[in-house]
Amino acid sequence: MEKKIIYNGKIITPHGIIDKGYLLIQDKSIFDVGEGDFEVSEDTQLINAGGRFVSPGFIDIHVHGGGGHDFMDGTLEAFLQIAETHVRYGTTALNPTTLTSEVEDLFVTLDLYKTANKLNTKGAQFIGVHLEGPYFAVKQRGAQDPRYIRNPDPEEYQKILDYSDDIVRWSAAPELPGAIEFGRYVKAKGKVLALAHTDAIYEEALEGFNNGYTLATHFYSAMSGVTRRNAHRYAGVVEAGYLIDDMDVEVIADGVHLPAPLLKLVYKIKGPDRIALITDAMRAAGMPEGESVLGNIDTGLKVIVEGGVAKLPDLSAFAGSVATADRLVRTMLNEAEIPLLDVIKMISLTPARIMGIADRKGSLEKGKDADVVIFDEQINIAMTIVNGSIKYNTIYSKENSIVDLKTN
Fold it and tell me: If one looks up domain 3-55+365-407 in CATH, what number appears?
């Protein structure tokens, strides 16, 4: 049985921070969390956190790529390299996310996911596929390729869901013809359903919520707000997200998609139990700024990365973010001025609850998966542990770990 003890750290738990606490890991699970003295056996790896924060791993439920790769590239290398890229920034679990595409391309991605999920030993854990599209409002397409946008087709979406059990989430526009029936079908299959790239008014969003659309994909981005139709003013999806208490929202907290005042507003109204921080990262995450591609490397949309965000060449819209999870935490702390415990909840326990995996992930509690990230006051990642295995490390040395224990 493999054992690890992380000690001399500020342990972030659902109930508060344990100063100079310890975390005991056995194999893939958390065995104990506490403070004070602890027993050490000869087969135990000792990890001195050096006074840093010890946090539950970050869970990103909406990510397209990173490290120069996109999940729609159609290669096994893309899946594995994206997972390895994001684990360096504290992400321990993620949902590979697609873009609007032909069904054949989607099937290739789903096939690759199944293979990559078995071979992914160095990166963040895959926790199921998120289908973003193709059932969107063209007016709110953002950077989604309009060639593939269409209305829900029962024959098509039933075929897709029958093809793979790895699909755990689907984002669509609830106001489209057939979208309510689609929502009911997806909900009946036990998948998370989200409204996205939508031009719905409040009443349509509410009907969507009542038929399964319980999550707002990248809140504020590519969705309607207050609008006029035939001189009358209508509330939109943004207002629906606020007014429907039980609707969850995901936020690209890079400080660009949503500036600090809006991040503060979302937090003030929805609270940490209803907000999931996401990167929505495309292939340029973790890469130098410049030209890039959104979607498949050969057929995707050309974009420009500048000022910490990806944009369409005509600057008409953002084209996904280049954020990593550590940046989300840093932005919410420093720019939105939100308490650390709430920020960590929004990137760990809340997304875990939304995806139905909070029984095993999202917090440092006995019996849960040993997904851990260690970072300093500036949210610089020092170590990432996934299911008890160290995937990224700048502080641990087996040779000096005993010495560290005796001198601390």
Answer: 2.30.40.10
User: 194 pairs with which residues across the strands?
Assistant: 171, 215
pLDDT per residue as tens digits for the range 295-319 = 899 988 899 999 999 988 888 778 8
Per-residue CA distances from 96 to 70, 125, 358 (Å): 9, 10, 19
Q: Are 300 and 72 in contact (CB under 8 A)?
A: yes
Task: Please name the amino acid found at residue 167.
Answer: I
Burial string for 131-154 (b: 16+ CB within 10 Å, else e) reads bbbbbbbeebbbbbbeebbebbee
Instruction: Judge whether 336 and 270 are in contact, CB under 8 Å.
Output: no
CATH number, domain 58-354, options 3.90.1150.10, 2.40.128.20, 3.20.20.190, 3.20.20.140? 3.20.20.140
What span, in angstroms and rounded, lies between the C-alpha atoms of 251 and 358? 19
Q: What is the pTM of this model?
A: 0.95
Structural domain spans, the chain: 3-55+365-407, 58-354
pLDDT in tens, 222-234: 999 999 988 899 9
The tokens describing 244, both together, are 């429907």
Q: Calculate the alpha carbon distances from 311 to 102, 131, 146 in Å.
A: 23, 22, 16
Taking the alpha carbons at both ends of the chain, their separation in whole angstroms is 26
Count the helices and strands in the chain (H runs, E runs).
Answer: 11, 25
